[in-house]
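Chain A, query sequence.
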Amino acid sequence: MLRSLGQRPVTGSDEDPRVTELRTAVARLRRELAVHPVEFPDRGIAEDELASLAAMAAGGVPEIPRLRRSLLLVAGAIGSVSALATRLADVRSAVELFGEPPHRTRR
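Chain A, predicted structure.
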């Protein structure tokens, strides 16, 4: 399952399985967005942030706050496009595998 739960990655791979899941989910959403026939105002934002997520996944374990920020921007940009909802949910699930960001204390 997950290294964060004490599990090890699949034999023969040193890659964190969360990163693999993120990379796969982002790639699938990028492909679906690329073939989506309808233009919408924030499509460029979604494409840019998905590229950012892909780069973070390629670089190893990403920073959780950056992941969540990119997820929010992607969700805001394509959240109303129902044809992409399943793949967007997959990306969200992949981001959630990294856990919650540290909670800020109020001063």
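The chain is about 60% helix and 0% strand. The chain has a mean pLDDT of 87.
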